[in-house]
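Troubleshooting: if your tokenizer reports a length mismatch, compare your output against this known-good record of 504 residues.
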Amino acid sequence: MANQLFQIKTHESLVEELQGENRLHRVLGPVQLSALGVGAIIGTGIFVLTGVAAHDLTGPALMLSFVVSGITCLFAALCYAEFASMVPVAGSAYTYAYATLGELLAWIMGWDLILEYAVASATVAHGWSHYFQDFLRFFQVGLPHHFTNAPFDYDLTSGRLNMTGTWFDLPAIVIALIVTVILVKGIRESAGVNTVFVIVKLVIVFFVIGVGAFYVHAENWHPFAPFGLSGLSFFGHTVMGRTGPGGQPMGMLAGAAIVFFAYIGFDSISTHAEEARNPSRDVPIGIMTSLVLCTILYIAVAAVLTGMVPYNHINIDAPVSDAFRQVGLPWAELLVSVGAVAGITSVLLVMMLSQPRIFLAMARDGLLPTGFFGAVHERFRTPWKSTILTGLCVAMMGAFLPLRILAELVNIGTLLAFVIVCAAVLIMRRTHPEVKRPFRVPLGSVIPVLGILCCLVLMFSLPVENWVRLAVWLVIGLVIYFSYGIRHSRITSKRNAAAALGQK
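Known-good structure output:
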């Protein structure tokens, strides 16, 4: 039993997968991969979560929160780039864990990535809905109140869930279903649509920085860190910094743990390594280019936003467009809303594009039903069944769960994934030093170790409820693994077959 739980996939078996009939089309170059990264990163982070973090946790110190999160992601990104150049198949961190840490930890990673991409997509759909409604209000058009938001929300002052008086978030459902149709159509079409959205939102982001800078008032940056520069907790007990009304840590580090969501996306590039024309070169380029560019833009937007509006007056649901309204530029509010809708759409597209490829990798290994999750459409060459399932789940979560709960749940799952990837790089170097690494993380073991430590610091800066939700999610995953995955594992089946032949 123990041998099965920690059996690994050989590098040779990973390469063999590229020759199978269910392989994906290699159509993506470095520009398209970088666009996918920017498409996934810039969106909800700038247009939504800046408001939540600045208003509740950081104040103007949000700029430093983005620096801390960006550095943490840089460490993890370098580790992702090494693996993606070495093992250019679908599956991202799940595949890397299978090749280094064994089947059980690979399942945990895959199950964790499902949490990351599916819940992240729901968070993005929720943010898209608020900006779309903000856009409609400019033309004096409004949806019926019952269809504008999730039916409950988390109140920071009381630490309780309150009813909002609505039934569900209708725009979140609609955008999730539209994106699902696009994704079923094909990767080339999806990448093309994404590139258009990326161009639009980059123009808007530069507009926000360029025009907003003229309305910055330096006094709005004082005090710079009203909640402090720390915010570190340990399983719900704050050890550094202030504690909020609901028991959550407050301060710059706590804000970094929240806006960390803004960087989720660069790792999705590695899920498309199998669709890259030259993955050993193009995937590392795409990862690093998108991450560095977006970090610079995030810091600039955070500076402008907190300089335009006092942090405690920032609108949580649509912070950037509302900031222009507050300084008396309604036409700019409309323009930003349009850019936000386009930008957040591209984030949703890339997130929902990545999720089915995790399902596909797990199904190829027999850990999920191959007939459903491993099905690739004969014409479109996309994992169409799991794409449709992803779209339905995203629509339901985006419609019924509030933004704060979704964002924090995604962050802790992603940080755990990053910890495992950084550790896997260290393990792979010891166990398989002979494998060719077209891209290698610099400074030896320093970067992976720093990545692990930084991710753990941010994980401990999240409220304790996130640890509970993560534990519940992992328990559900383990139940599925031990009831289905362990009995259908393809590696185990091959090993048993070989043992039977040997006995004969």
